[in-house]
Amino acid sequence: MMTSTLVILMAAVIYLAMYFTYGKSLEKRVVKADPSRATPAHKFYDGVDYVPAHPAVLYGHHFASISGAGPIVGPAVAMAWGWLPGLLWVWLGNVFIGAVHDYLALMSSVRHDGKSVQWMAGNLMSKRTGFSFGLYIWFALLLVLAAFMAVIAGIFSRAPEVATASLIFMVIAVFIGWLMYKVKLNFYASTVIGLVLLVIGIWIGFKFPIKASFQTWLLILLVYSVIASSLPVWVLLQPRDYLNAYILWIGLILGGIAFAIIGKDLTAPAITSFSPNVIGGKASPFWPTIPLVIACGSLSGFHSVVGSGTTSKQLDNELHGLMVGYGGMFTEGFLSTIVIVSIAVYGLTVFSEAGVNMTAESWGAAYAIAAVKQVGKVGIFTKSYAHGLYDAFGIPVKLGNSFASLWVAAFALTTLDTATRLARFAFQEIISPLEGSGAFNILSNRWVASLIPAAIGGWMAWANNWLIIWPAFSGMNQLLASIALMTAALWVIKVAKPSGAWRYAVLIPALFLWITVTAAIIWFLAVVRPSPEVSVILGVSLVLNFLLFFDFAAAYRKPVEEYAYA
Amino acid sequence: MDITQYKVMFLIGKGGVGKTTCSSAIAVGLARKGFKTLVVSLDPAHNLGDVLMEEVGSRIKKIDENLWALEVDIDKMTLKYLQKLENNLKSLYRYLTVINLDKYFDVLRYSPGVEEYALLEAIKEILAKRNEYDVIIFDTPPTGLTLRVFALPKTSLLWIEKLIELREKILDRRLILENVHGERYFVVDGEKMKLPAREDEDKVIKELKSYRTEIEEINNIITGNETAVIAVLNPDELSFLEMKRAAEVMNKFEIPLRMVIVNKVESPKKIMKKIHDYFNVRVVEVQKRDTEVRGINSLEEFSKSLL
Amino acid sequence: MHNLSFLFYRVSDFLKGFSAAFKTQSTEYIEFELRELENAFALLLMGSLIGLPAPPTPLTMRVMPYMAREIYVMQRRAKTDDAMGEIAALFDIG
Predict the structure, then answer these.
(1) Taking the model in full, what pTM does it have?
(2) Which residues, numbered 10 to 69 in chain C, qualify as contacts with chain B under a Cβ-Cβ cut-off of 8 Å?
(3) Could you report the predicted ipTM of this complex, rounded to two decimals?
(4) How far are the Cα atoms of A56, A69, A280 from residue A158, in angstroms, in the given order?
(5) Is residue B158 less than 8 Å (CB to CB) from chain A?
């Protein structure tokens, strides 16, 4: 029988092997990475923003930036298909599409003087693509807010000790922020103090759990989003984001080791059916809907923007890009593997502990719904993970559960904060045509501009089944990946000119992705029939998706000379 | 109102009302009383020299006992600006690529607000010499421009405060980064410059603060007890209305209107009552003369009705 | 023996760099905010350089020689016009 050790080892072997074979080939034949070509870090060296960085620094930073709550939540839901399909998507989807996407987004940004994918899309395809991007981002952010508010509210309402721990974590973050940035205490001292306080915080969480209902938490999170996103970054956002990085790595390493050494059998079914009840609680065909469930961990559009942020401006040598972009995504895939394995081993245990009648036979029909309604969409993972930690290291299950829950909640809370800020920024760009009118003055007020997306997000989280919101969010995410991958494909084929058949290494994933995502969203709108607001968002995005394809096809036929960069 | 108690005077009014004549007359009158007097024309359409019937240039020149005169050359000042700007930009150009120098000069020369700033700088420069004289009298440009110049210190102060606030935020963030990452250097075109993170190493904030002090000083002088703004108008409706609006603005900015001179009065008119009623400061009526008042002796004669 | 020490070097080098990643993680938002502030500052004082109708003032003249960094940020922002890309990159929406 399949054991956790086997799966973990297989994951490690597959990722390592593909890195050194497929990855290296991409590097040599598609990207044609040239160690002697000056990267933006050298070309525009200014000692501050364009500075060559050690590749491990970029790797660690890039990975922490792309990993949020996504690689955990998605795979947990995808368990409805059984552990094998999700695992295959996390392995193969990652290797052939997701990591390729991340790597190419990074390298094309590097070759374009560090410009973002959006900018490149505007340049390589059409200005319209650039603008629709802004509108699309705002829509996507609404869904981000809805999805993550629901995730956190779900965690807090089920595990009130985590709510307290999260609250204390925020207080600790503010305190550490004050220490590091105002008092200017030594970096290492502040860090150690922060981590110690964090442990104490988790413990205190058990002593004083805060009990509230799901709806109450949604309201609180709405208020939190508006306030947090209006604070100066050094107060809460920056220090918490910093401390989160430690939680991430500790969680990843502990989990990896734990499940590698436990060696328990995977008791959950390997495959349930092609169309178990997942999205909206309805029967969902694995193809094309899997990208609507697992985004990060396999393939995620938002990663393309991360790579073209600071990473591309600090890459020392083109050869480092593989470890950072490709390797970073693999690491996230590894994280998702741990998630899948943990539920595969302990899922049935967790269900029975919660008094849910679940068997390997009923799994397909009942898993997703039971997970959301009775155990917790995140809870199913955190409890399984905690069992793993207990069996491996003897860490008490309640503690492990708290830690894992805090892990997800902390990242999700940061996402709410940043998503609201970004929404505010995008909103002001969108309403700029209204400038001069009274409406503009009201709408561009920062409180209003923060409140609108937070309120819409909160309301969508309230009014909609989470099994609808999450796939909608993933859908938007993958549309973004479509744009990025097509932009990269265009760049690769027209500008980088890979050797021989290697162009297909990019073209095929790009087209496959576009077809899959388009089919998935059409299926979603037609079969699941979500509420009007979700339908509008997805509908408009679908239209943009078609526009994108036309622009791509048109740009594909243009001769090379018309491209700015060659 | 004892005119001799003021050390700084501004004569304001529309073009053609007789500002220059009144300024010169007061100047001559005070000089004859023994006060060391400097009369300055800020009006781009200078006729100070014509009224005094002396040669007045862009350098302070003694034209009589206790009397000095100056015609400020705004164009020359603007040119001086341009020169300084060019020098500063050239040194910056060493560091940065593609600065649109030509466009920037055009903006400087023709953009709204440049004249006001230039005039304020001129006033600043002259007031810096106020210890050398007992009284300084300014003949100002037409009312609109002058009022904008008067308002400038206060509005500048608001703006400078914002800039200082912003700069302090920048320094604060830089210090945070320095604390975590160590000293940071900005490199451009092969030049390496340390990024200032503290006030004592930041030339920008030092300049901001010293400029603020200078502007505060000017504002204090302009609104102070030893300064008088004297309005000159003619006995007609338009003149009166314009000065009425000006008075409202001056009130808002605490500019001290201390005296009104109604020049070229002929027969008694209704307007005179209006003027006396509205302005609650000393109002002096000056009869219209058959001949122009020109030359130092005529001006001395003229001054008797003003002082 | 050589291979072992080489491996050790590679690993410790990786770990050193990796731990430095945490330092970057502790300031990335602040760095972004700093660029925003520098850009705003330069715009207020020298927006006319990039076409904004902001009159240069005597103050502009006096601080100009010391504002190389700020003007650089302003120019870069004006040239690349990619603020959205810069912001979105920071955001842990993964």
Answers:
(1) 0.86
(2) 23, 26-27, 30-31, 33-34, 37-38, 40-41, 44-45, 48-49, 51, 53, 55-59, 61-69
(3) 0.86
(4) 38, 17, 21
(5) no
